[in-house]
Amino acid sequence: MLIGMTYDLKDDYLAAGYPAESVAEFDNLVTIDAIDDSLRLLGYETIRIGNIKALVTFLAQGNRCDLVFNIAEGLHGLCREAQIPALLDAYEIPYVFSESHILALTLHKGMTKAVVREQGVPTPDYYVIHDESEVANVELPFPLFLKPVGGGTGMGISANSIVRDSLALSHVAKLLLDEFRQPVLVETYLEGREFTVGITGTRENARTTGVMEIVVDPSCDLGVYSYKTKQEYLEFAKYHLVGGEVASECEKVALAAWNALGCRDGGRIDVKMDGQLRVNFLEVNPLAGLNPVDSDLPILCRKAGISYHELITRILDSALLRAGKVERQCVS
């Protein structure tokens, strides 16, 4: 079986002059090499294709593969994560991770919250601001938390994201609208503990890989898990595997959200406690980072005793099961 690999290489975009924060979600060669090594260890032939433009050329030349391991985040528009999956759908080539329409939905944090809330999953109250004139329509009690609806890797998140009065709300909303050119999610700020839950599998086969608490040093962005914190996590963030009743409640909310959204194969769900210690859905990452050293999902798995190779194996097995492909032949 030939597995194609699609991805956005961060160095390519930096060399083209893009600012670092705008390509923060993109991958480096460490990640590509690690995934490739795992796929080859499982006995598959691989081909590195690259970004969407490289995939268009690959397909236009008549090339095909049996399955694509896609981690490309895309660059433009709120459907950027869905672009490669949609193209693969058109060519009837199966791929790892969620379908194109799911990736389009989940990149918009407001629409995602609407879906999970409709399915009974607890999530903070929210409002989506599309332009400055809508700031006055926000009737949620302070404090509030603001972030771009389509950002990832902490993009647009800082100490200023927590606003405690109308003046700050208007100021921060304008800054985010101007800088990121996309709507802004305003939601009730939760003061409690923050966790991320790893998940592999699809529908009834979805299972958690563990629950990890994220503790941020208050000296960095007032303890917010921000862009700066994520870039300098070794200095400012601590990660702790949790168990017991807290983990069970986090897993319950995470799996409910995962299945409500129709996510597949692998990813993360971020949750947080409110003042009454109730766990709430924050957001989903259906294309979670897979850097073997510093991405949250591999870090969580490592703490839970799941190797990077096992993580990739679980993700791939889920995709193969869905695609009806023959059982993998593992090279031992």
Q: What would your notes on this structure say?
A:
It is a single chain. With 332 residues, this protein is an alpha+beta fold. It folds into three domains: 105 residues, Rossmann fold (3-Layer(aba) Sandwich), CATH 3.40.50; 64 residues, ATP-grasp fold, A domain (Dna Ligase, domain 1), CATH 3.30.1490; 130 residues, ATP-grasp fold, B domain (D-amino Acid Aminotransferase, Chain A, domain 1, 2-Layer Sandwich). Helix content is 36%, strand content 21%. It contains twelve helices and twelve strands. The chain has a five-stranded antiparallel beta sheet, with helices on both faces. Helix 2 packs across helix 12. The longest helix is centred in the C-terminal third of the chain and has 18 residues. It starts with a strand and ends in a 9-residue tail after the last helix.
Please tag this protein with its features.
alpha+beta; Rossmann fold; D-amino Acid Aminotransferase, Chain A, domain 1; 3 domains; five-stranded antiparallel β-sheet; 12 helices; disordered C terminus
